Structure formats: C-alpha cells, structure tokens
Amino acid sequence: MNIFMPIDHLQRIAKPLLPAGPDDWLSHNIEKGQSKEQYRDAVDSRPIKLPGAIYLYPYFDSTPFEEHLMQVAAGFLTDYFSVSVRVSTRPPEPKLTPYNKFKHDIGCGKRVASKDILFAMRPTRDGLPSDHIPSDGHAHILVTDYDLWYEPDDQDDWLFGLAGGDGRAVVSTARLMRTHSTECIDFARFLKILSHEVGHTLHFAHCIDANCNMNGTNSLNEVDLHPIELCPYCLRKLYLLSPFNPLNRVSRLIATLTDIGVDLTDDYFYLEKRLLETN
Ligand SMILES: [Zn+2]
Ligand SMILES: [Zn+2]
Q1: What residues form DSSP beta bridges with 28?
Q2: What is the DSSP letter of 31?
Q3: pTM, full prediction
Q4: 158-159 and 168-172: which strand pairing?
Q5: Distance between CA atoms of residues 179 and 96, nearest Å
Q6: Portions of the chain given CATH number 3.40.390.10
Q7: Does 31 have pLDDT greater than 80?
Q8: Shortest CA distance to 227 belongs to which of 193, 200, 202?
Q9: How far apart are CA 176 and CA 96, in angstroms?
Q10: What is the number of the ligand closest to the CA of 216?
Q11: What is the pLDDT of residues 131-143, one digit of tens each?
Q12: Radius of gyration of the chain (CA)
C-alpha cells in the first residue's frame, strides 16, 4: 500500500494561489517553489535533528497573557508539526546596535534589526551563553514584541518574522494586533506567522503551488488571506520529514484552534478532515 495515499487524496482540495496584487509578496519577490524531491534534497543536505524539540524563547516582559500565548503556541506547534515543543526561559538582553535606539511612533513598539535578534541567539556571540541553547533542539524560535526590521533605516523593510536558515528564527507580535493592545494579539495571525517561520527551519521554502501557510507574505492583508494550514503539497513534504496520522493531526488542530476562538471557516481543516474520514 502507498503510505502517502491519504495525503495524496488531499490534493483535490488544494486552493489556487491567490493572484498577486501590486503590494503583495509575489509582485516583489521571485519564487521558484520547491518540489517534494527538492524538499527531500534540502533535508538530506542539512539534516534535521529528529526526534528533537522545537524550543520557544519568550522575549518580552512576562505577563499572564504572554505566558498564555506561549503555551498556546507550544500546544499548536506540537499538533501542527508532530514534534515536541518546549517553552524555554527568556534569553539575556542582546547588545543592540545604535539604530536600535530609534523609536518610531508607529504604534508597533520598539524597532529592532531582526539580524541583531538572531545574533543574540547565537551561542558565544554577544548573547546567549552556549549552555542556554539545548543540544536536542532542532529549531530555536524567539517570540518578541519588538518590531522587526531587516534594514531599520529603510521605511518599508519591516518583517513579521525571519528564519536564519540554521534552525534559528524570530517572530514578532508587534504588527499582529486587532487593536494596539498587547492583549489583542490576533491568535490566527500569530500562529500563521509562527508556523510559517518554524516551517522554514524545517527546510520548507515558500510555496507557489497553492494557497498555503508557506506562501510569502508582505502585509497583514496577505496574512489574513492565507490559511493557517499547509496546502496538500506542503503537507506531503511534512509527511516525508516525519510520518504522522493525518486524521488525528487535523482533528487535534481543529479542537485546539476552535478552543482559542480561531475561525476556521475558510481554512483547509474541515475539508481535510471530511476527506480523510471518507478515504
Ligand atoms: Zn517566509
Ligand atoms: Zn504549500
């Protein structure tokens, strides 16, 4: 029996890639896509330590809401990628370069260069002591309320998140609010960005096969139009990485996301579950 059969059946529910508007990611970035063979090559050339854990590092002042956010994130990622996820302690404050002293009143919090934050997670360099990074982790994800900028002096060069290509990534909640209040972080937006960046640490390239969480994103509008779920083609890559029970996975995700009030109406989950139950 073809062990990919249940996953392959899902390809019929793939939704077409949305046409790119003038401000959208694909109007500004050339993407080549990534076949499952290319994905396998990427995993073979840079092996992922499985079974290993994804470590989440809170990088904001600890409040009951932020602690809840990290627990929600850990539970969601566990179900999504079928790996263990651990919430670590807040790392030491990184040494920030002068432009990080800028504070721009755009309602998004302190501006910081994403590469500085990633440097801060590099053992032995300016930040984390080497014993702060656990050896069993295959991905280390910093979650911060700093507003991330690739080039802090460029007016348009902000980011929702960035993956460093070596298992480190940073995700910002600064632009993911429903209103300018920390406790109004939109869970759907946050979990999309978080799982997208974790996907990069697992060697997923940007997807151009379908409407998918691994599509590139330039704006909140694009974030909102992308699903939380991986498209069927990316789901098949995930299965290549580490086989899972697809019906159990989708059922758990529906339960977790419904529990925190995320509207799944336009996402893949219900279609996916129905198809898996009937095949
Ligand atoms: Zn990306
Ligand atoms: Zn995809």
Answers
A1: none
A2: -
A3: 0.88
A4: unpaired
A5: 28
A6: 47-202
A7: yes
A8: 193
A9: 23
A10: 1
A11: 455 667 778 888 8
A12: 18
* C-alpha of residue 62 to centroid of ligand 2, in Å: 34
Does residue 121 contact residue 90 with C-beta atoms inside 8 Å?
Answer: no
The string over 54-86, giving b where at least 16 C-beta atoms fall within 10 Å of a residue's C-beta and e elsewhere, is bbbbbbbeeeeebeebbebbbebbbbbbbbebe
Judged against a pLDDT cut of 70, whether residue 23 lies above it is answered with: yes
Long-range contacts of 34-40 (CB under 8 A, 24+ apart): 34/204, 34/205, 34/206, 34/207, 34/237, 36/233, 36/236, 36/237, 36/240, 38/205, 39/203, 39/204, 39/205, 39/237, 39/240, 40/240
Distance 213 CA to ligand 1 centre (A): 9
Instruction: For residues 258 and 198, give the distance between their C-alpha atoms in angstroms, rounded to a whole number.
Output: 22
Q: Name the 3-class secondary structure at 256.
A: helix
Distance CA 46, CA 66 (A): 33
Q: CA-to-CA distance for 240 and 37, rounded, in angstroms?
A: 10
Distance 256 CA to ligand 1 centre (A): 24
* Nearest bound ligand to the CA of residue 236: 2
Residues in the 5 Å CB sphere of ion ligand 2: 207, 212, 214, 231, 234
Tell me the per-residue pLDDT of 255-266, one tens digit each, with 9 for 90 and over.
999 999 999 999
Query: Which amino acid is located at 233 in the chain?
Result: Y
Tokens of 86: 């651990």
Centre of ligand 1 to C-alpha 278, Å, is 33
Q: Ligand 1: distance of its center to the CA of 234 in Å?
A: 14
CATH number corresponding to 47-202: 3.40.390.10
**How many whole angstroms from 91 Cα to the centroid of ligand 2?**
32
Contact 117, 144 (CB under 8 A): yes
